[in-house]
């Protein structure tokens, strides 16, 4: 694994799944089977915020991710945030995710608090945190999804 890429997207659609699929397309990962993992960054791995993923392999393969995602059918706003910090000695790091029907300032505050709590549980010396936030207005009569994903490496075959 050479890199973890942070990608994001938001979209609306006629169903919750349609809005989620469209948000994945905006992030460039709609053609993969996502497998969620908890939030530990392996030692020695670079994390880069790229917005939209490059080609990560053939369609239908497995892609390992940490996912912050919110979907709503109510009018208002939906937001997702992913924060991360890595050890200053190229050791391991952490991702923390938060999402919900809230504005971007609130989701950013909450994800910062979560990351700080996770850092307090560990004896690692962390560098400065980084944060990616995606937020979108939600209108009545449609579903809206906002998401931020940390994508670990490239895809791998399922079978």
From TrEMBL:
List the molecular function annotations (GO) for this entry: arginine decarboxylase activity
Cofactor(s), names only, from the UniProt record: pyruvate
Sorted UniProt keywords: Decarboxylase, Lyase, Pyruvate
Read off the InterPro entries from this record.
Pyr-dep_his/arg-deCO2ase, Pyr-dep_his/arg-deCO2ase_sand, Pyruvoyl-dep_arg_deCO2ase
Could you tell me which Pfam families the record lists for this protein? PvlArgDC
Q: Which Gene3D superfamilies match?
A: Pyruvoyl-Dependent Histidine Decarboxylase, subunit B
Tell me what reaction this enzyme catalyses.
L-arginine + H(+) = agmatine + CO2
UniProt keyword annotation of Chaperone present: no
Report the protein name in the record.
arginine decarboxylase
Organism, by scientific name, is: Halosolutus amylolyticus
């Amino acid at each position: 694994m050479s890199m973890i890429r942070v990608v994001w997207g938001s979209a609306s659609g006629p169903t919750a799944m349609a809005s989620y699929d469209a948000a994945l397309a905006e992030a460039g990962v709609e053609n993969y089977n996502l497998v969620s993992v908890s939030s530990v960054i392996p030692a020695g791995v670079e994390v880069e915020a790229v917005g939209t993923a490059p080609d990560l392999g053939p369609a239908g393969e497995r892609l390992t991710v940490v996912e912050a995602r919110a979907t709503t059918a109510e009018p208002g706003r939906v937001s997702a945030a992913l924060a991360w910090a890595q050890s200053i000695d190229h050791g391991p790091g952490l991702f923390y995710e938060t999402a919900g029907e809230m504005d971007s300032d609130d989701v950013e505050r909450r994800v910062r608090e979560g990351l700080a709590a996770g850092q307090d549980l560990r004896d690692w010396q962390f560098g400065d945190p980084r944060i990616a936030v995606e937020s979108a207005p939600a209108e009545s009569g449609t579903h809206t999804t906002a998401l931020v994903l940390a994508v670990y490496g490239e895809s791998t075959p399922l079978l």
